[in-house]
Each structure stands twice: as C-alpha cells, then as structure tokens.
Automatic annotation (TrEMBL):
GO molecular function, one term: chorismate mutase activity
Name assigned to this protein: Chorismate mutase
PROSITE patterns named in the record: CHORISMATE_MUT_2
Record Pfam families: CM_2
Organism lineage: Bacteria, Bacillati, Actinomycetota, Actinomycetes, Kitasatosporales
Gene3D superfamilies referenced in this protein's UniProt entry, alphabetically: Chorismate mutase
Residue span, Chorismate mutase domain: 13-104
EC number: 5.4.99.5
Length: 112
C-alpha cells in the first residue's frame, strides 16, 4: 500500500532539521504576534475607557477606513495579500468595538 505521508523515520535527517529550524522561527513569530496583540489591546482598552468617560461612540468608522487603507498599502509593499490584511484588521477591530461597548455599558450603569 502506498501513502502520501512519509513517516518521519523515512525522511532525510537534513530535511527534518530544516523543518525544525523553520518551525522554531514560526513559533517565535507567533509569540511576537501574541505579545504585540496584547499590547494593542492594552491601548485599545484605555481608549475604550476614555471614550466611555467622555460619552464618545465605541466605533469610529472614519478612523477605521484610514487604518484599512494604510494597512492595505503596507501589505502590498510587504508582498502580503492586502485582502487578508484587511480581513485580519477588521476582525481585531470588531473585537475592540465589542470591548468598548461593554466598557460603555459598565460606565453608564455606574453613572448617577
Ligand atoms: C481604538 C479605537 O476604537 C475603535 C477601534 C479601532 C482599532 O481597533 O484600531 C479603531 C477605531 C474604532 O472603531 C479608536 O477609536 O481609536
């Protein structure tokens, strides 16, 4: 019987070494992405509190449009699919707006 998945024991050790080296880099990049996202959410939480205190709306579509245009241009320069970059940013912003709505609700609930 043939199989398309060669067992690791059949694979050239040099290939396995290269795979491990690349996966180590992927793991480092994933860790950096998580840390950068955590920092971004720390900032957006502060923005959410500021907006709630001053009764500003949770979402700012004008700002979002400028960020999307900027990120698409950066993605093109970096040879990353701009549609993917936009989808990724839109996904993050949707979560931020959810947080801001929740902060606004909590803040309004505490107002006399
Ligand atoms: C963080 C903000 O709030 C929202 C979230 C944004 C984001 O995550 O970048 C951008 C615009 C707003 O819809 C902001 O107004 O700057």
């Amino acid at each position: 019987m043939t199989t398309s998945n060669a067992a690791a024991s059949d694979t050239d050790p040099a290939v396995l070494g290269e795979l491990t080296r690349l996966r180590d880099s992927i793991d480092n990049i994933d860790a950096a992405v998580v840390h950068m996202l955590a920092e971004r959410f720390k900032c957006t939480q502060q923005v959410g509190r500021l907006k709630a205190e001053h009764r500003l709306p949770p979402a700012d579509p004008g700002r979002e449009a400028r960020q999307i245009a900027r990120l698409r241009a950066l993605a093109e320069d970096a040879k990353l699919d701009p549609a993917f970059a936009e989808k990724f940013l839109t996904f993050i912003i949707a979560e931020v707006i959810r947080h801001h709505e929740s902060i606004a609700d909590d803040t309004a609930g505490g107002r006399s």
